[in-house]
Amino acid sequence: MEKIDMEKRQEELGAPVKNNGYRLYYREDGVYLAIDPSAVNQNEMNLHRMIQYIKRKKLENPYFDVISEMVSNIRHAEEKIAETQDEVILDEELCVELSADQMQAYLTLLPPDIGGKKLSREDAKAVLEQKYHVSYGVDEDKLNEIFDRKLYGEKFLIATGREPERGEDGSLEYYFNHKNSGGKITYDEKGRADFKNMLTFEKVTDGQILVKRILATHGVEGINVCGKTLPAMKGKEAALPKVGKNVRISKDKTEIFSAIDGEVTIRGGRITVLPNVTIEGDVDMSVGNIEFDGDIVIKGNVNQGFMIKSSGDIIVHGFVEAATLESGGNIIAKGGIKGADRGEATAKGNISALFIERMKITAEGNVTAGTIVNSTVVSEGYVDVSGGRGRLIGGKVSAGKYVVAKRIGSDAGIQTEIHIGMLAQKRRRLEEVEPEINALSTNIGRMNLALNNQNSNIAGKARLELVISLSKMKEEKKRLEQEKTELEELIKETKDGNVHVLETIYKGVKIFFGKICYIVPYDNEYVTYYKDKKDVLTAACRFIPEK
């Protein structure tokens, strides 16, 4: 049988002559493989092409052990790899591979033998579409280049699908200053607290829009290289905020409006509009105690012995003396607080004051003051004494997140205690919520059983009342489960707090992280105290104010 020189065949085909390092010979006594290791070793692709070429030739009963040995130990060799047989003349072929997600198609052009048929570009397109079903995103320029240059044996990206585009997420537009709702102290350009211009609350009118919900968009469909449409991913919808008193939601649930003239604020995560009462002067014998379902604004002082109770905010432009203040929102004392060891202020939100002296303070939010002296302060959030004089001297201060002050304690050794990570009220509430949820689950199960029992005699009005009760129980259970989740997340976030000292902390100050007590052994400056497992450690002050 005539010996066939494959390199000569390539040259006759008009393709670039490349010494791939291997040749097949069809002889009278069999088929032989010749390898030139100097060429094969220089290029792993040549080795791959050699194996691919042998497979394409469809040898009958090849000596796989011989081929394997030649491939494993490449050296100058010519070995018989099959018995005598007619040569299969190869046509020019396309080999196409699809990615797992069918978003990319890769093409390899395989060379023909002498006498083999060549593919036209139109043939190639037909093979792509009919055999491999590739109909979208074909790179025509790359296809032309492959055929013009006869780029045999190399794998090229020939088609690319279009990924589906995610729509824009929904968002909320607020028409009031919701970030600073709650009477936060503002700071000037030098970072100093401005107690004279504390942010108060915005007045709104009946029917005024408070929040608008911008709906998410649907996005753009994608398509893979096989022409299959990929569904667009819709953006995530933004949920409307929870609402409290005196607000209404539009029928399409995209807008929140005020239902009265009043002041808008956020109470327990709920947008609320409350009426307000204003006392133009002092709270004294001419005014008496005040209890009001809304905000209370006092232009003067609150004298000792009086009580102010509000479901909203209490804003005092003057001093608060040894009085009792109870707020369902925030307490702002622009003139400061002098408790004389008899006063008490409690708020569901934040408490802010120019100074706090000999007062019992409890806030479910944060406590901010220019100075705190000989007071008992409990905050579920943080205690910030970094503005004004920034002195925290004497008493007991507890915070769920952190305590920050310019100076803590005194060189006179006044006993000062700092407690960090205390969320007693939240933990107590969590302990209450869990059995409430369990009890509701039990009752809901019993009601469902009664309603679904075919032998039950419950019918008519009694059945309707039972269905209504069941619906209310399910809603209450859902609300409690949400409250439980929020409590757990809050407790988790505030598990480990810090004490930040911007200037000096004095010897003898006691810092408690849970049950761990650390007594400051010497005066220290610009430092942060934190808990690491069972130890209290220090580092250079790393306080970053919350925005």
UniProtKB/TrEMBL annotation:
InterPro entries in alphabetical order: FapA, FapA_b_solenoid, FapA_N
Pfam families to which the protein is assigned, alphabetical: FapA, FapA_N
Signal peptide: none
Flagellar Assembly Protein A N-terminal region domain location: 96-267
Top-level taxon in the UniProt lineage: Bacteria
Keywords: Coiled coil
Coiled coil: 463-497
Name of the protein described by the UniProt record: DUF342 domain-containing protein
